[in-house]
Amino acid sequence: MGLLQIFGKSPKRLKGKVVFITGASSGIGEHTAYALAKHGVKLILTARRNNELQRVKQECIAISRGQLEDNDVLVIPMDLLDISSHKMHFQHAVRHFGTVDILVNNAGRSQRALWDTTELTVDKQLFDLNVFSVVNLTRVALEHFNQKGEGHVVVVSSIAGVVGAPFSGTYTGSKHAIQGYFNSLRLEKMGQNIDVTLLCPGPTFTSFLSEAFTDKDGEKFNVPVQPTDHRMTAKRCGELNAIAIVNKVNEAWMGLIPMMPVTYLAVYFPLIFSLAGKIAGPQLFSKLRDSKKSELSENKKSK
């Protein structure tokens, strides 16, 4: 990503494009919208919270400095888990703008839980949101992209989709599933002017941790991210997302040191990574992600 910032295409080239973003009311989705709006990209902002979407819309218009008007940012309150509504909402966007050029699948939830105590209902709920709703909305978008002969599918995965993360077994599984689904789609669409980009951010400052699943049905982790945590800002993540999108990269890993070197070590030198893991234990990887020792691991030791 570093070289693309210097030598790659600028997000300015996306001016006038129409981008459909899920989970746009906060966090990475919100700041990706801002990074695109700054360059005059027309937006469809979707999430469940209409009041927050309206706030993001007004900020997008302000950030655009006259490039976007009220009609250029469409707000669609939408629950991704309502699979039957996907086609209706996407067609609404197509009717409004005449087209959609890029779909950004951003919505999802994380998890903090012990693998061996996670209830199966949690696995199913997390996969419904992080995987199956994403797959279904993408298939809806592909109908439009196939018809017009071009399109771009973008999915916010995670470094956890590249390297396994401790104390997030279901979340990690869902992101690995996303990688598999969309790497397969990319191969199928080669030569058809339909691109697939996987965005894989590392630890980022958002409200994701408070909303994260645990191992119990209906329970939230409810632990806020701390200002002292070592994380990438959501603004920086949004800017890097915009660069990856305009350059149509296959997969983008984003994060701070030491998370990025650890990821490269895990992928390109797996034997060394495995040895380091055996020596350091899961606590090291948990601390890299959450900037502290895992309470889950400590609780397990005390039992």
Automatic annotation (TrEMBL):
Q: Which SUPFAM superfamilies match?
A: NAD(P)-binding Rossmann-fold domains
The entry's family comment says: Belongs to the short-chain dehydrogenases/reductases (SDR) family.
* Protein's UniProt keywords contain NAD: no
Q: Which GO terms describe its molecular function?
A: oxidoreductase activity
Report the superkingdom from the record.
Eukaryota
Keywords from the named record: Membrane, Oxidoreductase, Transmembrane, Transmembrane helix
Entry keyword Oxidoreductase: yes
Protein known as: Dehydrogenase/reductase SDR family member 7
Look up and give the organism this protein is from.
Rhynchophorus ferrugineus
Checking InterPro entries in the record gives: NAD(P)-bd_dom_sf (IPR036291), Sc_DH/Rdtase_CS (IPR020904), SDR_fam (IPR002347), SDR_family_member_7 (IPR053011)
Q: Which Pfam families match?
A: adh_short
| Segments traversing the membrane | 253-277
